[in-house]
Amino acid sequence: MGTATLLTDRTDLAAWSLRTVTLPEPLDFGDSPEQDLAQLRFLRAVTSHAVRLRWTLRGRPSFPLDTHVHLVAPSAGTDQASRAYAGEWGLAYRYGSCYYRRGPGMVVVKDVRPGVDASRMVITDGADAFLRLAEDPSGVPAPGDVDAAAVAVEAGLACAAGDAILILPYRMRHWPVPHVAV
């Protein structure tokens, strides 16, 4: 069981909001797309809760950088290739560049990640399915949500590997600037 799994299984991430947490072991990427989705799911959760995570990258995710550049970037890498990738990720990372907000009967998604076409959308038809996919810790769509998962992947809002899916936008819980700022 990896460090990320231990942290999410035994920790209320909301309690770590706005604190700095350093993972003692690197997060391993590149062994399998399914494992990479699990690691990215962890990074999406800590980004959503605004945990200031310091972590080391080992390997390289199976997915293009523009899919996960909005998730908290690694502080270091274990070798030259992973250090270079961590550096690219860190330079492109911006909190708030790909997130969703829940509303009554709708989901609002903002996606301004580097490398993808900027979009802002309001999802009304399928909002419940989007939320189930985004908030299900298993990452495996229920039979009734398989079509919604395919639409999310096609729209660039999700990555899939095997039976698993990861909705890429994280739930915005902490605003990057005060909402009253002019």
Topology diagram in text:
Layout: H1 3-10, E1 20-22, E2 27-28, H2 33-48, E3 52-54, E4 56-58, H3 65-68, E5 76-77, H4 80-92, E6 98-103, E7 106-111, E8 119-123, H5 127-135, H6 146-154, E9 158-161, E10 164-167, E11 170-171
Parallel strand pairs: 1-3, 2-4, 4-5, 6-11
Antiparallel strand pairs: 6-7, 7-8, 9-10
Summarize the structure.
With 182 residues, the chain is of the alpha/beta class. The protein has helices at residues 3-10, 33-48, 65-68, 80-92, 127-135, 146-154, and strands at 20-22, 27-28, 52-54, 56-58, 76-77, 98-103, 106-111, 119-123, 158-161, 164-167, 170-171.
Fold and architecture overview:
The termini are far apart. A 4-stranded mixed sheet has the order 8-7-6-11. A 3-stranded parallel sheet has the order 2-4-5. With 182 residues, it is of the alpha/beta class. The model is unreliable at 1-6 (pLDDT under 50). The protein has 6 helices and 11 strands. It has helices at 3-10, 33-48, 65-68, 80-92, 127-135, 146-154, and strands at 20-22, 27-28, 52-54, 56-58, 76-77, 98-103, 106-111, 119-123, 158-161, 164-167, 170-171.
